[in-house]
Amino acid sequence: MRQLVFHGRPPEAVSQVCHDDVTGLVTRRCAERQLAAALVQAAERDAGVAVLHVDVDRLKEINHSLGRPVGDACLRLMAQRIVDTVDNRGSVSRMDSDEMMIELPGIASLDDVIPLVERLLEHIRRPLEISGQALLSSCCIGIALYPDHGVTVTELMRHANLARRKAQSRGASQYCVFSPSLLEDDTDRIQLRCDLRHALERGEMALVYRPLLCARSGQVVAISAQPQWNSPRFGVLEMSKWTPAARDNGQLTDICHWVLKHACRHARSWYEAGSGLRVLVGVPAEGMADEGLVERIELALSESCLPPGLLEIELTEGGLMRDPHYASRVLGRLQTMGVRLAIDGFGSGHSVLGHLGLFPLDTLKLDALFINDCLDNPRHQAIIRSVIGMAHELGIRVAASGVSSRQQVDFLRDQGCDLLQGSLWSRMEYSDPV
């Protein structure tokens, strides 16, 4: 394996100033100088330069849940993989806590870049082995080319960053090439964040309910409440489209409380009509830090007169692992109330496994990452079988999210999965007036 050695490395007297302490990569300031010099050479030779903006997925969550030393170790391994993949074709630098930049001189066209980017995404996707445990890893990459997408350092770095944001909006392990339309998207992103601040008070939020089915009988046994924003400017937006803006605005907890209140009210009306469906309400990682969470859940149940057993709270691994012992106390209080409890996105990169004994859980919902390729990926098949077996030994049901085909249904049922949810049943989704 190659060591972290980079083109344009400064003399030893200034090496520490120009290299990041955690990864050994060139720092942002030195990288900008290197890129400026590369652009001068490219202009003289009528050549191209590619700028790749790389963002490591879930690093902040790993820092929160497992601690900064594990996050730093994760970042070092990711940096090493990037350097190994780039090899002698360019230089790598660290831009921010979870962001890196790759500069590739001598690029003639995108055809010179895309194969390297695809190799890099595949290399990064391999699990990281840190302190005896395997962590899932991925990144997203934005691409900008000189001179097609900019002729200055500032333009190229900004445009690569915009392309990276677009890639992230598509999910994990994605890449995107800059296009002028992204400049409009960037302006839209600022406007979206401003509009979202007033969405609740203007009555622009609605609830969409998605079914959770029994894997054996195919019957709907629960429904998951998902907030949807009906924006006058941007149209109907699913939660994934505005969650980053809500997080930037500090709105996620308020929106969670709004969902909780109205979902309980709707579930009570279904209960009175003779339905015994549970309603699932997600609590983001920020919500677990809310000291009034239990009281808010009590109030929502009291105001709606919903039996507690018909409410299931879905928590994220990141939220639980911020402070496992505090989370255990909160979950214990909710269990005493009779509320059901679930972990959403189980296996998404947080080491909650060693703390399962602390949490009085009813359900583990496997992350869609494992389900997407469960028919072709033997490693994911082994993980699914292991999680189901372990959970059943603990008296915990297992749900699978992201189910999109009948073949996946058959496989998951054969493995003993209890509950299924995904786009396969999108025709069963419905909304309820708030």
Walkthrough of the structure:
- It comes from Billgrantia ethanolica.
- InterPro entries: Biofilm_reg_signaling, EAL_dom, EAL_sf, GGDEF_dom, Nucleotide_cyclase, Rev_trsase/Diguanyl_cyclase.
- This is Bifunctional diguanylate cyclase/phosphodiesterase.
- With 434 residues, the protein is α/β, with parallel strands linked by helices.
- 45% of the residues lie in helices and 21% in strands.
- The protein is built from 16 helices and 17 strands.
- Strands 8-9-11-12-13-14-15-16 form an eight-stranded mixed barrel. Strands 2-3-1-6-7 form a five-stranded mixed beta sheet, with helices on both faces. The chain has a two-stranded antiparallel sheet with strand order 4-5.
- A hairpin with a 5-residue loop joins strand 8 and strand 9.
- The termini are far apart.
- 44% of the residues are buried.
- The N terminus is likely disordered.
> How would you sum up the major sheet?
8 strands, mixed, barrel
Radius of gyration: 24 Å
What is the percentage of strand-forming residues? Answer: 15-25%
Instruction: Kindly state the percentage of residues in helix.
Output: 40-55%
Number of helices: 16
How many strand units? 17
Query: Numbering strands along the chain, what is their spatial order in the largest sheet?
Result: 8-9-11-12-13-14-15-16
Q: Assign an overall shape.
A: globular
Low-confidence stretches: 1-16
Average pLDDT metric: 87
Distance between the termini: 58 Å
Please identify the structural class as seen in this structure. alpha/beta
